[in-house]
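lol ok so funny story. i was supposed to be doing the assay writeup but got distracted and ended up predicting the structure for this chain instead. priorities right. anyway since i did it might as well share w the group, maybe its usefull for someone
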Amino acid sequence: MRVLLTGGAGFIGRHVRAELAARDHDVRVFDSLRADVHGRYPDATGVTVGDVRDAAAVAAALEGVEVVVHLAAKVGLGVDVSDLPDYADTNVTGTAVLLAEMARANVGRLVLASSMVVYGEGLGHCAEHGAVRPGPRGEAQLEAGRFEPPCPVCGLPLAPALVDEDAPVDPRNAYATTKLAQENLVTSWAIATGGNIASLRYHNVYGKGMPRDTPYAGVAAIFLSSIFRGESPRVFEDGGQRRDFVHVQDVAAATVAAAEQDAHRLTLNVGSGTPRTVGDLAVALAEATGGPAPTVTGDFRLGDVRHITADSSRLRRELGWLPQVDFTAGIAELVH
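and the output, tada:
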């Protein structure tokens, strides 16, 4: 099949491109090569350079295409409130322009790279009240070192729980809000056009080619940058934040599997299924590099969630996907 891959020069995009090629699909890579993502000297080999906000450029890129895999986005939590217009313009307006041009070109299949951040804190389990939706953690609570979100009903500590795709959404930062807006836009496009969509909520993706030393880098890249400078990786809170770290090769395989099937209107978590703490990740990276041990700082960022881990059983059931890369092997490859 002929695939337009937006954001195909980025970290995940390069792996999706390789997976599509390995499965003998014809791939057209479309990427803005923006410097805050790719650095000053990006590799433009095989890339159609353009911005998804440019309708004429998108229309040209869509010629002859059967499926669009839409990864192009501004990622990360942001630096400060001044990032808000760029997130909204790049992620929301860019997706709207792409969808409008897809409708004009009669391209009816789309895979969207969404994110687990749309869930906020997801779900917790209270011994008294069962499954509940944690509220935001306040500054006073965090400054006192009370990092676990309490039950919103009784105030008792909550045990973390896996979130499935039917869990309530609760975006708590600019990036999360724009990813949910993208999901809503592609759903409205599918309803209006009869198109097929798969919105993939990626969890914490790591692996070869991760961007480093940018304000928008993921936690694994931030820890590695510290270690390679000979510094102890600084772990926020008490290091007990739970995440689902999933290898980029597994994410690419899930993305291509979604592109190859008539997905109708699916929303799918993409995670390894094995929760780990941020502290566990820091220790694993330090041990794999022989670098300095992590420092647990007690520092925090307002808007960070405490726990968000995936139930990816729907992806396994719908697409026959299973993660293939063991965490220890994936960390060793990343460090190498």
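The chain has a mean pLDDT of 92. The first strand starts at residue 2 and ends at 6.
back to the writeup now i swear
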